[in-house]
C-alpha cells in the first residue's frame, strides 16, 4: 500500500533496515551509479525514508571522500537513521554478499581455472572488461573535465603513469598540490565537479525530510570525533599487530593489511582509479599474483554485486593461496584469510570517515579551497583509468606475441554496446562470456 504524499512514513526499526540492506547487498550490480540509483529509487521514491535533498546532501559528502562512495552513502544513511550500529550494519551488509561470492569464485578460479569451460568464459569476459574500463573513464571524464585546466591534469597524469611509470600515490599528491594552488589562484577552474543532478523533485513527506532537525548523534563535537577516530585506529592497529605477532610483520597477511589500508586512502574517483596502485603493489612489488590473474580478477569482480573495489578480496585470496601461507595442505583456508584481511583493511577507513567525520565534512563542503584538491585528483584519475585500459588491452589483445583479432572484435562490440546502446554491464559480460565459450571451443 502506497502512503499519501502528505503522510509521513512510520519509524523504521533496525530489523526492517537489516533486511533492506541485506537485499541491497545481493542486487547492487551496475557500479556506483547503479548502486546509488537503486538506493534512490527505494529509499527516496518508494519507502521515503529520506528526502531527495537530504539524500543528495549525504551523497555529496561521500563524493569528497576517498573510498567507494556508494558504500559510504549506505553507511551514512544507516548511521543517520540508527546511529553507529545502523551505519555499521548498512556498510557490512552492502559488501558482505559480494565478499562471500568472490571467495567462492576465487576458489573456483584457483582450483579449476584451467578447465576449458572456465578458460572460455574468461576469454570472452576479459576483452569486455577493457571496454568497461574505457566506459568508466568516459563517464568520470565527462563529469569531471569541465575545462582545459582539468583536461591538462588528466593528460599529464596519463603520461606520468603510462610513460614515466610514476607511482600512483605521487600522482595523487601532485594533483592535490595543484588543486590547493588552483583553488586560490583560479577557483572557478576547480569547482567541485561530478555532483549528481541537483533535482528539486519531491516524492512526498519523508521520514527524514528537508526540515527534519539533525539528530543529536549526527551533530559535530570534537570529543565524539576523537572517540570514534581513536576507536577505529585502535581496531585497525590492533588487528594489524595481531597479524604481525602471529605471522610476522614481513608475512603476507601483515603486508596486505598495511598495503590495502594505503590503497583505501588512494581511492578518489572510484575503484578504477586505485586499480593501477593495486596492480603496482600486488603484481610488481609483492608478487602476490600475476598480471594475467589481475585481469581475471577484475573480470570476476565485474560479475558480482557490491563495490568494484571488492577486487581486493580476489587479490588477497590469490596471494595467500599462491604463497600457501598456512602450508600446502591449507591453501583454501589461506585464501579465505587473505580475502578477509584485504577486505577489512580496505573498508575500515570508509567506516571511520563517515562515523567520525560526516558532521565536520558537512561544515566545509561548499568551501572551494577545501574541495579544489579533490577536484584536481578526480581529473588526474581520468588519465590514470585510461592508462589502466591501455595496460589491460596490451595483455588481452596480444597472446604469445600474436595479435588476437577475436579478442579485439569482442572488445569493439562491447564498446559499441556500452557507448551507443547503453547496455547493462551484467548483460554485456554474459553475452561476451558466451561469445568466448563459442570461440574457444571452435578453435580448441
TrEMBL record:
Secretion signal, residue range per the UniProt entry: none
Membrane spanning residue stretches: 20-38, 88-109, 115-138, 150-178, 225-245, 257-279, 308-326, 332-361, 373-394
How does the record classify its membrane topology? Multi-pass membrane protein
- Any idea where this protein resides? Cell membrane
Could you list this entry's UniProt keywords, alphabetically sorted. Cell membrane, Membrane, Transmembrane, Transmembrane helix
Stored InterPro entries: Chr_Tranpt_l_chain, Chromate_transpt
Q: Which family does it belong to?
A: Belongs to the chromate ion transporter (CHR) (TC 2.A.51) family.
PANTHER family (UniProt xref) = CHROMATE ION TRANSPORTER (EUROFUNG)
Q: What is this protein called?
A: Chromate efflux transporter
Taxonomic lineage is: Bacteria, Pseudomonadati, Pseudomonadota, Betaproteobacteria, Burkholderiales
Q: Which gene encodes it?
A: chrA
Amino acid at each position: 500500500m502506497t502512503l499519501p504524499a502528505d503522510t509521513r512514513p512510520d519509524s523504521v526499526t533496525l530489523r526492517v533496515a537489516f533486511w533492506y540492506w541485506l537485499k541491497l547487498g545481493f542486487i547492487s550490480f551496475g557500479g556506483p551509479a547503479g548502486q546509488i540509483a537503486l538506493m534512490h529509487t527505494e529509499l527516496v521514491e518508494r519507502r521515503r525514508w529520506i528526502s531527495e535533498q537530504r539524500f543528495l546532501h549525504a551523497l555529496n559528502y561521500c563524493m569528497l571522500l576517498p573510498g567507494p562512495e556508494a558504500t559510504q552513502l549506505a553507511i551514512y544513511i544507516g548511521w543517520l537513521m540508527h546511529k553507529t550500529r545502523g551505519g555499521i550494519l548498512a556498510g557490512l551488509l552492502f559488501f558482505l554478499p559480494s565478499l562471500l561470492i568472490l571467495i567462492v569464485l576465487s576458489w573456483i578460479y584457483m582450483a579449476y581455472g584451467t578447465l576449458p569451460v572456465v578458460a572460455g568464459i574468461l576469454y570472452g569476459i576479459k576483452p569486455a572488461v577493457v571496454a568497461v574500463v574505457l566506459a568508466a573513464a568516459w563517464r568520470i571524464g565527462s563529469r569531471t573535465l569541465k575545462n582545459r585546466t582539468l583536461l591538462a591534469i588528466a593528460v599529464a597524469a596519463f603520461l606520468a603513469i603510462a610513460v614515466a611509470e610514476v607511482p600512483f600515490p605521487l600522482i595523487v599528491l601532485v594533483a592535490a598540490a595543484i588543486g590547493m594552488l588552483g583553488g586560490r589562484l583560479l577557483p572557478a577552474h576547480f569547482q567541485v565537479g561530478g555532483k549528481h543532478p541537483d533535482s528539486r523533485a519531491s516524492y512526498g513527506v519523508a521520514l527524514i525530510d528537508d526540515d527534519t532537525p539533525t539528530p543529536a548523534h549526527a551533530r559535530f563535537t570534537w570529543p565524539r570525533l576523537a572517540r570514534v577516530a581513536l576507536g577505529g585506529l585502535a581496531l585497525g592497529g590492533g588487528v594489524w599487530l595481531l597479524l604481525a605477532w602471529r605471522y610476522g610483520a614481513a608475512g603476507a597477511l601483515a603486508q596486505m593489511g598495511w598495503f590495502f589500508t594505503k590503497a583505501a586512502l588512494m581511492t578518489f574517483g572510484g575503484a578504477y582509479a586505485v586499480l593501477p596502485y593495486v596492480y603496482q603493489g600486488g603484481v610488481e612489488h609483492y608478487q602476490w599474483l600475476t598480471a594475467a590473474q589481475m585481469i581475471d580478477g577484475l573480470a570476476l569482480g565485474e560479475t558480482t554485486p557490491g563495490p568494484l573495489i571488492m577486487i581486493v578480496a580476489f587479490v588477497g585470496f590469490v596471494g595467500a593461496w599462491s604463497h600457501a601461507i598456512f602450508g600446502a595442505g591449507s591453501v583454501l583456508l589461506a585464501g579465505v584469510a587473505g580475502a578477509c584481511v584485504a577486505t577489512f583493511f580496505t573498508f575500515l577507513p570508509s567506516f571511520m570517515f563517515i562515523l567520525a567525520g560526516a558532521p565536520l565534512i558537512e561544515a566545509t563542503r561548499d568551501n572551494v579551497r577545501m574541495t579544489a584538491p579533490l577536484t584536481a585528483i578526480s581529473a588526474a584519475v581520468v588519465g590514470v583509468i585510461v592508462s589502466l585500459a591501455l595496460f589491460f588491452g596490451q595483455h588481452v589483445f596480444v597472446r604469445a606475441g600474436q595479435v588476437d583479432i577475436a579478442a579485439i572484435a569482442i572488445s569493439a562490440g562491447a564498446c559499441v554496446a556500452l557507448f551507443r546502446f547503453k547496455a547493462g554491464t551484467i548483460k554485456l559480460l554474459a553475452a561476451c562470456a558466451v561469445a568466448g565459450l563459442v570461440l574457444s571451443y571452435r578453435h580448441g
